[in-house]
Amino acid sequence: MKLATKLILTFLLFSIVPLTVVGFLAFDNGRQAIEQDMTDHLLSTTLLKKAEFGTWIDDSKRDLRAMAARPGFQQITTVLVSQDSTSPEYRSAYKRIREDGFDLFLQEQSSFLELSLIRARDGRILVSTYDSLEGKYRESEPFFIEGQKDTYVEHITYSMTLGEQVMHISTPVKDETGTVVAVLSAHMNLDDISAIMTQHSGLRETEETYLVNTFNFMITGSRFDADARLKQTVYSEGVNACLAGHDGSGFYNDYRDVPVIGAYQWIPEHELCIVTEIDQSEAFQPIVDLRNGILFIGLGISLVVMGIGVFFARTITGPVYRLVKGTQEIASGNLAFRVGTTAKDEIGQLSRAFDQMVETLNMTTVSRDELASEVIERTRAEEESRRYAERLAAINRLDHIISSSLNITQIYDGFVKELLALIPLDRTSIVLLNDDRSQWQIMRQWTQDEPMLAPDVWYPVRASVMEWLVTNLVPLLENEIGEHGDWSETEHLRREGLQSRLLVPLIIRDQVIGALTAASRQPSAFSEEEQQILISIADQLAIAIQKSQLYEQVQYHAAELEQRVLERTAELSDLYNNAPCGYHSLDSDGVFERINDTELAWLGYTRDEIVGKVKFRDLLTPASAQIFDREFADFEAGNGVNNLEFEMVRKDGTIMPVLLSATASLDPEGRYLISRSTIIDHTERKQTEAELLESEEKFRRFSDAAFEAIVLHENGVVLDANNQYAEMFGYTREEILGKQSIPLTVAPEAIEDMREKIAAGSAGPYESIGLRRDGTRFPMEIRIREMDYKGRRVRMAAVMNITERKRAEEALQQRTVQLEASNKELEAFSYSVSHDLRAPLRAMDGFSRILLDEYAPDLPNEAQRYLGLVRDNARQMGSLIDHLLAFSRLGRQQLKKESVALGDLVQAVLVDLKTEQEGRKVEVVIGDLPACQADPTLMRQVFANLLGNALKFTKTREPAIIEIGCNNQADEPVYFVKDNGVGFDMKYANKLFGVFQRLHRAEDYEGTGVGLATVQRIILRHGGRIWAESELDKGTTFYFTIEKGDS
Amino acid sequence: MKKHAKLLIIIVLLSGFAAACGQNSVKESPPDPVAVQLKWVHQAQFAGFYVAKEQGFYTEENLDVTFIPGGVGVDLYQGLVDQKVEFSVAGADSVVVKRSEGLPIVAIATTYRIDPFVLVAFADSGISSPYDFAGHTISLSSISNDIQFQAMMTNLGLDLSEVNIVPYTDNAPFLNGEIDVINSFVAGSLIPLEAAIGDRAINIIWPGDYGVHFYSDTIITSDSLASEQPDLVLRFLRATLKGHQYAIENPEVALDATMQYADNQDRAVQEAMLVASVPLIHTGDDQIGWMRAEVWEGMYQILLEQGNLEGPIDITKVYTMQFLKEIYEQKP
């Protein structure tokens, strides 16, 4: 910048800064004063108008009340309300009240527009100064209803009859007995109110006062819109505050959206808001004038100062310019140039000295030394670029090390090798911090070229140089060890003869995770460049460490996932193999592809003997094989089969009746892929049937009065029958004898089948359809035996109505289907619980944790506490899900019973529960506990839950007393766990063992509400019972039994 | 270490979230279609509805509203029951009657809180109140007129048989003196009637002055919609009331909106109708749309006494304050 400009600007600066400050202060003070003045003015206007309004109302009330109380008026009113309107008394009273009363009153009082006398009985207007109102009814108007009680001022409303806003004041009129007989109502002149609001000498051009009702409607005219009454709504800040019951003032935009200053007052008795406002543009006009004045004066002063500045600059800069020109001439080679001045001031002296210098310079030649120094300079540059290339190569190799290995030790060693090749060091090490950065450890250390065994010791960060690094996040250079502080390791390093050191923090995502250290036996051993190299190596190292740690974590998580898959597979396989029914799958040739343990056990084969080798058909009896052949073709086409009866041949040759249901999986083209079959053991039912048959036959043979329906026939002709038989078909015994039994008792559609069976000599039992006399049908089962009867070979048939049985069979089948469905649902539910429920929980926990980790400094303590609560609750729910899953698995788990020494088990459980007893006084009494046959894992859960509960609910007791023992009752051991805890009300005992049922508030006693449900399920599975006895505030005892048994 | 765990958590979570987003991508749901059956042909009577639509108040509530004009013989109620329309505008008294016939409909707000029905007589005829009706001929146009007229006369203890009632045809019999009192509607037929009368003074007789207080235009919906989709009803009513408020504050906007629908109507007449309707909608007490139990009860008593209902009903089931309360209690 030129000197002249500098001078002018300096002058300006010295004038403008104080001017601005003084001007601003003056303006600000002025503005505040004017604002305050204006607000005060508005407030006082508002108060004044409020008072005027109040006075106006009070005066009007007083006047009206006075009129109603006049004895003459009361007398006339009594006549009007009691007499018929056609009577002369009425007419005369009417005339008096109109002419001498109302009309006179209105002449005196300008604030009343109209007066009405309303009959209290029905609201009819008897007299009105508006003729048109007489005879009308005001029975539902508030001013009539309220006016009967006391003088009442109505809120302003719109009258359809009058076609304008109205406000009524009303007052009761009483007869001499004091009974209210009429209401005197006055219609107030709202123009008066408007006039009060708008006409005031203090009002400025944009200043206005208006009233707003509780529905935000303006009820007096607006200065800007005379038609605004009850039409213009006002939702301005001031009105809203006022309607909320506040008095005050403020700066805001009014209903026209124009910025105003407003003052407002709430008038509770009339539910009105009175507002006085003035446009800010008008109110602030004096402020604008003041501002303009200050600006104008300031500008004038600045111009004068600038003029003075220009004058001074001219006198100083002239000679200087000449001197500058001289310098330029010399530089361009004109050594003959002289400034030549006679001035006596400092610039004159300078000019003469300059001329003398040019003289000397003229005589001197360029020195040779300059050339030599240039050579040295070049050599140094070459050296520099060579080292730069070396450094680049080393960094390149470091990159290679990072990308080629994930082994952190290899990476450390590779790094140091490269580092030492670049910088000779006496000592270097890699130091890592633990997760919470409270301790550090030397991971690797080298003394000169030799890796040294780093001691496996954690040192506290506090007071060590690491604390400085963690706080400052920048490298620390100590040219003299100890010069920046006396840290815990400083003395040790000095003793080892190290003199200077450089520590570079390893930073990942703004956090220090460790440091790269270098030390030398020389003081100030690290050049600027070496420092740079160490810093960039540290950066690379940090990346390598991060990568390696990430890799470790990924590996860890992969292993975890694999473990989960294994668990899940095992669970499913367990479900498949240990189902109480047989499962198998056949390929398109009918060969076993898969079979479960249950079915294998039934058949007596091992899996290797069957799978891929044996056809299902080969395991069937010939009769069943035929059925199979017939059904399989249809089945292959994709039609499932249900409850087919088959007889399978076990490995030992015995027959096993089964029920088979199966579905076929088809590919998209409809080709058969594989079957899924369920097999149910049918042996028991078959045996029962056989036994039944046998006993029936015996019975029939011995008793003609059998319970069965029995018939004897020869070639279909009934020889004899018992009553049961006749009744079954709706006949008497006599009606049947000698008849052909088949057309009489068998439904036509079943006759042919029946005849075939008889012809084949089948003894049955077989099913057919019975026909009653009335034409109704029922399913029946028939068994036939040939026997000698009075010397002839006849057939005896026993007939059973199997309607009930059929029904039961159907029900059974339905139940099976339902069971399968619910099994599947359960599986789906477990899946959904373990995965779907957990995912959002993980998300909640994860994000809350990130919030806490990343943003904790930005969050208020309260927010952090809430986030902590969110995490606690998410974890709580996680634990709930775990318990619930375990609980649901209980039902499917196989019991592994063995002899359990309960005494030892209880001791072990108490050890596990040690933390719950810490800091408390707990007395545990373990009585004699006989061993039992049970699943030890599950029994441990039982005691863990019961003792856990006992400890939990005695936490308020000092001392807590817990007793575990066993009573022998009726030869059955009854185990118990007794505590002196808070107990519960026995009327809730039925809720005790339900899932998620809690008898105490979660705030008082933690827990998921699954524990006792689990306990109950375990006990029930062991064939035992569990119950509890409790008394509030005394304690609880849980009793349980376990099925005795050597089974 | 901590940092890495966090990174992993974020990756796992983000992938989970991405999957979740794929399933239920968060989209603005399309506006709910709403059909409104109007009580009469398009005219300024329904300006509040038009304004709500044209000013985007319905869109703000995510509603796509269409208006179905009414007319002679248009059933205002069956569409609600058949779920062809979501809302209707109908006379409050007819809602009570329909409800007594078993129609599952319910009133949610009243836009005309004063019935515009009036009786008009020339001032020089000397008829200024119902007391003057005896011996005169009066025209009435609807059942609703009839009910209010009868109720008014009964309240005053006047004899109906002394009045000659004829059905309304047009204004001509009144103008040429054949009938003495004509039925009319403020904010409706009164406007052309006054225009036809010119300078001659008239008396307007309000049933409201003689103890008969009827609500008129009322927004109704079906019981099922009110109970199953209360949110839809609430949004519709909120926008509609906002439209009415806006129409009162901005009559020019309301007139423009009206003319978009009533494009074959005379603008000047519509303007007069709009101005005249303001006091019916905004009576100065209570909020726009607000309903009072005593008015419903009064209407019900009159309808019951005159035998217009199938039988006694629970009048409090005919209307619901649920939505009005929710709307006005939320307002600032």
List keywords for this structure.
heterodimer; A: 1047 residues; alpha+beta; five-stranded antiparallel sheet; B: 332 residues; three-stranded antiparallel sheet; 16% strand
Measure the end-to-end span of chain A: 109 Å
Share of helix among residues of chain B?
40-55%
Q: Give the DSSP E fraction of chain A (strand runs of 2 or more residues).
A: 15-25%
Rg over C-alpha atoms of chain A, rounded to the nearest angstrom:
55 Å
The strand order across the widest sheet of chain B is 2-1-3-10-4
The pLDDT mean of chain A sits at 81
Shape of chain B: globular
Account of the protein in words:
The complex is a heterodimer of chains A (1047) and B (332). Chain A has 1047 residues and is α+β, with helices and mostly antiparallel strands. Chain A is 48% helix and 22% strand. In chain A, the strands form 8 sheets. In chain A, strands 12, 13, 14, 15, 16, 17 and 18 form a 7-stranded antiparallel β-sheet that branches. In chain A, helix 10 (369-404) packs parallel to helix 14, helix 23 (803-855) packs antiparallel against helix 24 and helix 24 (861-890) runs parallel beside helix 28 (1011-1021). The longest helix of chain A has 67 residues, at 3-69. The radius of gyration of chain A is 55 Å and the shape is flat. By secondary structure, chain B is an alpha/beta fold. Chain B has 14 helices and 10 strands. In chain B, strands 2-1-3-10-4 form a 5-stranded mixed β-sheet. In chain B, strands 8-5-9 form a 3-stranded antiparallel β-sheet, covered by helices on one side. In chain B, helix 6 links the parallel strand 6 (137-140) and strand 7. In chain B, helix 2 packs across helix 10, helix 10 packs across helix 11 (251-261) and helix 10 packs across helix 14 (322-330). Chain B is globular, with a radius of gyration of 25 Å. Mean pLDDT of chain B is 85; it is low at 11-27. Chain A binds chain B through residues 123, 131-132, 134-137, 139-140, 155-158, 160-161, 163, 165, 213, 215, 217, 230-233, 235, 240, 435, 508-509, 511, 513, 546, 549-550, 553-554, 557, 839, 842-843, 846-847, 849-850, 853-854, and chain B through 1-10, 12-13, 16-17, 114, 128-131, 155-156, 186, 203, 206, 208-211, 213, 245, 248-249, 278-280, 282-287, 294, 298, 332.
